[in-house]
Amino acid sequence: xxxxxxxxxxxxxxxxxxxxxxxxxxxxxxxxxxxxxxxxxxxxxxxxxxxxxxxxxxxxxxxxxxxxxxxxxxxxxxxxxxxxxxxxxxxxxxxxxxxxxxxxxxxxxxxxxxxxxxxxxxxxxxxxxxxxxxxxxxxxxxxxxxxxxxxxxxxxxxxxxxxxxxxxxxxxxxxxxxxxxxxxxxxxxxxxxxxxxxxxxxxxxxxxxxxxxxxxxxxxxxxxxxxxxxxxxxxxxxxxxxxxxxxxxxxxxxxxxxxxxxxxxxxxxxxxxxxxxxxxxx
Length: 282
Prior knowledge:
By secondary structure, the protein is mainly beta. It contains one helix and 21 strands.
Protein backbone atom coordinates (compact mmCIF):
# COMPACT_ATOMS: atom_id res chain seq x y z
CA UNK A 1 0.00 0.00 0.00
CA UNK A 2 1.10 3.56 -0.55
CA UNK A 3 2.50 5.29 2.53
CA UNK A 4 0.92 8.59 1.45
CA UNK A 5 -2.56 7.76 0.26
CA UNK A 6 -4.66 5.81 2.74
CA UNK A 7 -7.97 6.97 4.21
CA UNK A 8 -10.86 5.99 6.46
CA UNK A 9 -14.39 7.23 5.72
CA UNK A 10 -16.99 7.05 8.47
CA UNK A 11 -20.29 5.43 7.54
CA UNK A 12 -22.03 7.36 10.31
CA UNK A 13 -20.91 10.90 9.49
CA UNK A 14 -19.42 10.65 6.00
CA UNK A 15 -16.20 12.27 7.23
CA UNK A 16 -12.90 11.14 5.69
CA UNK A 17 -9.59 11.21 7.55
CA UNK A 18 -6.12 10.52 6.17
CA UNK A 19 -4.29 7.67 7.89
CA UNK A 20 -0.84 8.94 6.90
CA UNK A 21 -0.17 12.54 7.93
CA UNK A 22 2.35 14.47 10.00
CA UNK A 23 0.29 13.57 13.06
CA UNK A 24 -0.84 9.99 12.36
CA UNK A 25 1.08 7.25 10.57
CA UNK A 26 -0.33 3.87 9.54
CA UNK A 27 2.59 3.33 7.15
CA UNK A 28 2.17 0.57 4.59
CA UNK A 29 -0.18 -1.41 6.88
CA UNK A 30 0.88 -4.71 5.33
CA UNK A 31 -1.19 -6.51 7.97
CA UNK A 32 -4.31 -5.43 6.06
CA UNK A 33 -3.23 -7.22 2.88
CA UNK A 34 -3.75 -10.82 3.93
CA UNK A 35 -6.70 -12.99 2.96
CA UNK A 36 -8.12 -16.44 3.65
CA UNK A 37 -10.89 -18.45 2.01
CA UNK A 38 -13.26 -20.68 3.94
CA UNK A 39 -14.23 -23.82 2.02
CA UNK A 40 -15.51 -27.35 2.40
CA UNK A 41 -12.86 -29.94 1.52
CA UNK A 42 -14.14 -33.12 -0.10
CA UNK A 43 -12.85 -36.06 -2.13
CA UNK A 44 -12.88 -34.14 -5.42
CA UNK A 45 -11.55 -30.78 -4.23
CA UNK A 46 -13.28 -27.92 -2.45
CA UNK A 47 -16.76 -26.38 -2.52
CA UNK A 48 -18.75 -23.64 -0.79
CA UNK A 49 -15.83 -21.23 -1.17
CA UNK A 50 -16.24 -17.96 0.73
CA UNK A 51 -13.81 -15.13 1.48
CA UNK A 52 -13.38 -14.79 5.24
CA UNK A 53 -13.24 -11.38 6.92
CA UNK A 54 -9.81 -10.16 7.99
CA UNK A 55 -9.17 -9.35 11.64
CA UNK A 56 -5.67 -8.06 12.32
CA UNK A 57 -3.64 -5.62 14.41
CA UNK A 58 -1.98 -2.61 12.78
CA UNK A 59 0.82 -0.70 14.50
CA UNK A 60 0.13 3.03 14.30
CA UNK A 61 2.42 5.89 15.36
CA UNK A 62 0.69 8.94 16.83
CA UNK A 63 2.48 12.31 16.74
CA UNK A 64 -0.63 14.48 17.14
CA UNK A 65 -3.19 13.28 19.67
CA UNK A 66 -5.88 15.52 18.19
CA UNK A 67 -5.73 13.67 14.86
CA UNK A 68 -5.79 10.34 16.65
CA UNK A 69 -8.82 11.44 18.70
CA UNK A 70 -10.72 12.35 15.51
CA UNK A 71 -10.08 8.91 14.00
CA UNK A 72 -10.86 7.13 17.27
CA UNK A 73 -14.20 8.88 17.73
CA UNK A 74 -15.31 8.17 14.17
CA UNK A 75 -14.22 4.53 14.43
CA UNK A 76 -15.97 4.01 17.78
CA UNK A 77 -19.19 5.55 16.48
CA UNK A 78 -19.20 3.30 13.40
CA UNK A 79 -18.48 0.20 15.49
CA UNK A 80 -21.21 0.93 18.04
CA UNK A 81 -23.72 1.64 15.26
CA UNK A 82 -22.68 -1.56 13.45
CA UNK A 83 -22.09 0.48 10.28
CA UNK A 84 -18.66 -0.41 8.87
CA UNK A 85 -16.71 2.48 7.42
CA UNK A 86 -14.60 2.35 4.26
CA UNK A 87 -10.84 2.04 3.99
CA UNK A 88 -9.42 3.54 0.79
CA UNK A 89 -5.93 3.22 -0.66
CA UNK A 90 -4.62 4.82 -3.85
CA UNK A 91 -2.24 2.95 -6.13
CA UNK A 92 0.52 4.54 -8.21
CA UNK A 93 -1.80 4.71 -11.23
CA UNK A 94 -4.30 6.81 -9.30
CA UNK A 95 -6.82 4.00 -8.84
CA UNK A 96 -8.84 3.93 -5.63
CA UNK A 97 -9.24 0.58 -3.84
CA UNK A 98 -12.02 0.46 -1.25
CA UNK A 99 -12.98 -2.08 1.39
CA UNK A 100 -15.55 -2.06 4.16
CA UNK A 101 -14.19 -2.34 7.67
CA UNK A 102 -14.00 -0.97 11.18
CA UNK A 103 -11.53 -0.41 14.02
CA UNK A 104 -12.73 -2.28 17.08
CA UNK A 105 -9.88 -1.82 19.59
CA UNK A 106 -6.64 0.02 20.26
CA UNK A 107 -3.93 -0.12 22.92
CA UNK A 108 -1.79 2.98 23.47
CA UNK A 109 1.87 2.96 24.52
CA UNK A 110 4.00 6.05 25.18
CA UNK A 111 7.42 6.46 23.62
CA UNK A 112 10.09 9.10 24.32
CA UNK A 113 9.58 12.65 22.99
CA UNK A 114 5.84 12.47 23.71
CA UNK A 115 5.20 10.10 20.80
CA UNK A 116 2.53 7.42 21.16
CA UNK A 117 2.10 4.10 19.42
CA UNK A 118 -1.07 2.09 19.34
CA UNK A 119 -2.00 -1.36 18.18
CA UNK A 120 -5.33 -0.96 16.41
CA UNK A 121 -7.53 -3.97 15.71
CA UNK A 122 -8.80 -3.61 12.13
CA UNK A 123 -11.59 -5.77 10.71
CA UNK A 124 -12.12 -5.93 6.94
CA UNK A 125 -15.17 -7.36 5.14
CA UNK A 126 -15.75 -8.49 1.58
CA UNK A 127 -13.33 -7.69 -1.23
CA UNK A 128 -11.08 -4.78 -2.06
CA UNK A 129 -12.93 -2.93 -4.79
CA UNK A 130 -11.73 -0.63 -7.58
CA UNK A 131 -14.43 1.60 -9.07
CA UNK A 132 -14.17 2.83 -12.66
CA UNK A 133 -16.76 5.12 -14.28
CA UNK A 134 -17.44 4.52 -17.98
CA UNK A 135 -19.56 7.16 -19.75
CA UNK A 136 -21.53 6.27 -22.89
CA UNK A 137 -23.27 9.15 -24.65
CA UNK A 138 -26.21 9.04 -27.03
CA UNK A 139 -25.81 9.56 -30.75
CA UNK A 140 -25.85 13.33 -31.29
CA UNK A 141 -25.67 13.31 -35.09
CA UNK A 142 -27.98 16.04 -36.36
CA UNK A 143 -30.99 15.05 -38.43
CA UNK A 144 -30.53 15.93 -42.10
CA UNK A 145 -34.05 15.11 -43.18
CA UNK A 146 -33.69 11.37 -43.55
CA UNK A 147 -35.17 10.60 -40.14
CA UNK A 148 -38.70 11.22 -38.86
CA UNK A 149 -39.50 14.48 -37.10
CA UNK A 150 -42.94 15.00 -35.58
CA UNK A 151 -45.03 18.20 -35.29
CA UNK A 152 -44.76 17.89 -31.52
CA UNK A 153 -41.29 16.38 -31.29
CA UNK A 154 -39.11 15.51 -28.31
CA UNK A 155 -36.31 18.00 -27.54
CA UNK A 156 -33.75 15.77 -29.25
CA UNK A 157 -33.20 14.03 -32.58
CA UNK A 158 -33.13 10.32 -33.22
CA UNK A 159 -29.67 8.90 -33.91
CA UNK A 160 -28.52 6.88 -36.85
CA UNK A 161 -28.29 3.43 -35.33
CA UNK A 162 -26.47 1.36 -32.74
CA UNK A 163 -23.38 2.56 -30.92
CA UNK A 164 -20.65 0.60 -29.19
CA UNK A 165 -17.58 0.84 -26.97
CA UNK A 166 -15.52 -1.59 -24.89
CA UNK A 167 -14.73 -2.20 -21.25
CA UNK A 168 -12.19 -4.40 -19.47
CA UNK A 169 -12.56 -6.32 -16.23
CA UNK A 170 -9.43 -7.29 -14.34
CA UNK A 171 -9.29 -8.49 -10.77
CA UNK A 172 -9.74 -12.03 -9.58
CA UNK A 173 -13.52 -12.39 -9.83
CA UNK A 174 -16.32 -11.11 -12.13
CA UNK A 175 -17.15 -7.45 -11.53
CA UNK A 176 -20.43 -6.04 -10.34
CA UNK A 177 -21.67 -2.77 -11.78
CA UNK A 178 -24.19 0.00 -11.36
CA UNK A 179 -25.68 1.02 -14.71
CA UNK A 180 -27.24 4.50 -14.67
CA UNK A 181 -29.44 5.30 -17.68
CA UNK A 182 -30.51 8.88 -18.42
CA UNK A 183 -33.82 9.77 -20.04
CA UNK A 184 -35.45 10.18 -22.37
CA UNK A 185 -35.59 6.53 -23.41
CA UNK A 186 -38.16 3.77 -23.77
CA UNK A 187 -37.46 0.15 -22.83
CA UNK A 188 -33.66 0.60 -22.64
CA UNK A 189 -31.42 -2.30 -23.65
CA UNK A 190 -27.65 -2.49 -23.12
CA UNK A 191 -25.54 -5.44 -24.21
CA UNK A 192 -22.25 -6.13 -22.42
CA UNK A 193 -20.45 -9.14 -23.84
CA UNK A 194 -22.93 -11.99 -24.13
CA UNK A 195 -25.49 -10.54 -21.72
CA UNK A 196 -28.29 -8.05 -22.32
CA UNK A 197 -29.45 -5.73 -19.51
CA UNK A 198 -32.98 -4.50 -20.14
CA UNK A 199 -35.95 -2.91 -18.39
CA UNK A 200 -39.42 -2.40 -19.88
CA UNK A 201 -40.14 1.12 -18.73
CA UNK A 202 -40.06 4.74 -19.88
CA UNK A 203 -37.38 7.01 -18.44
CA UNK A 204 -38.49 10.60 -18.91
CA UNK A 205 -36.38 13.66 -19.65
CA UNK A 206 -34.47 14.55 -16.47
CA UNK A 207 -35.07 11.11 -14.94
CA UNK A 208 -32.56 8.32 -14.38
CA UNK A 209 -32.73 4.55 -14.02
CA UNK A 210 -30.20 2.69 -11.83
CA UNK A 211 -29.56 -1.04 -12.25
CA UNK A 212 -27.38 -2.40 -9.42
CA UNK A 213 -26.11 -5.91 -10.10
CA UNK A 214 -24.77 -6.31 -6.54
CA UNK A 215 -27.80 -5.16 -4.55
CA UNK A 216 -30.13 -6.55 -7.25
CA UNK A 217 -32.22 -3.39 -7.39
CA UNK A 218 -33.68 -1.33 -10.25
CA UNK A 219 -34.72 2.18 -9.21
CA UNK A 220 -36.08 5.01 -11.37
CA UNK A 221 -35.54 8.47 -9.89
CA UNK A 222 -37.91 11.32 -10.79
CA UNK A 223 -36.79 14.82 -9.85
CA UNK A 224 -39.71 17.22 -9.48
CA UNK A 225 -39.83 20.93 -8.82
CA UNK A 226 -40.17 20.43 -5.08
CA UNK A 227 -39.44 16.75 -4.44
CA UNK A 228 -37.55 13.65 -5.53
CA UNK A 229 -39.44 10.39 -6.01
CA UNK A 230 -38.08 6.89 -6.46
CA UNK A 231 -39.97 4.13 -8.26
CA UNK A 232 -39.13 0.43 -7.97
CA UNK A 233 -38.77 -0.93 -11.52
CA UNK A 234 -37.73 -4.44 -10.45
CA UNK A 235 -41.05 -5.97 -11.65
CA UNK A 236 -40.40 -4.51 -15.13
CA UNK A 237 -36.97 -6.07 -15.63
CA UNK A 238 -36.37 -8.31 -18.62
CA UNK A 239 -36.67 -11.78 -17.11
CA UNK A 240 -33.84 -14.28 -17.20
CA UNK A 241 -31.74 -16.50 -14.99
CA UNK A 242 -28.02 -16.18 -14.40
CA UNK A 243 -25.86 -17.04 -17.43
CA UNK A 244 -28.86 -17.18 -19.81
CA UNK A 245 -27.96 -13.97 -21.65
CA UNK A 246 -30.84 -11.82 -20.33
CA UNK A 247 -30.14 -11.72 -16.59
CA UNK A 248 -30.29 -8.05 -15.63
CA UNK A 249 -28.06 -8.59 -12.57
CA UNK A 250 -25.39 -10.63 -14.36
CA UNK A 251 -21.85 -9.86 -13.07
CA UNK A 252 -19.42 -8.94 -15.86
CA UNK A 253 -16.82 -11.67 -16.46
CA UNK A 254 -13.06 -11.09 -16.46
CA UNK A 255 -11.78 -9.95 -19.85
CA UNK A 256 -12.48 -7.30 -22.49
CA UNK A 257 -16.05 -6.96 -23.71
CA UNK A 258 -18.03 -5.02 -26.29
CA UNK A 259 -20.73 -2.67 -24.99
CA UNK A 260 -23.53 -1.85 -27.45
CA UNK A 261 -26.84 0.03 -27.31
CA UNK A 262 -29.32 1.75 -29.60
CA UNK A 263 -27.57 5.12 -29.40
CA UNK A 264 -30.79 6.93 -28.48
CA UNK A 265 -29.85 7.50 -24.82
CA UNK A 266 -26.85 8.14 -22.58
CA UNK A 267 -25.74 6.02 -19.64
CA UNK A 268 -22.87 5.36 -17.24
CA UNK A 269 -21.40 2.12 -15.96
CA UNK A 270 -19.80 2.23 -12.52
CA UNK A 271 -17.60 -0.86 -12.80
CA UNK A 272 -16.64 -2.45 -9.47
CA UNK A 273 -13.65 -4.74 -9.95
CA UNK A 274 -12.79 -6.92 -6.97
CA UNK A 275 -9.56 -8.36 -5.53
CA UNK A 276 -8.86 -10.36 -2.39
CA UNK A 277 -5.97 -7.98 -1.70
CA UNK A 278 -4.76 -4.74 -3.25
CA UNK A 279 -2.33 -5.31 -6.15
CA UNK A 280 1.39 -5.33 -5.48
CA UNK A 281 1.91 -2.38 -7.84
CA UNK A 282 0.83 -0.13 -4.97
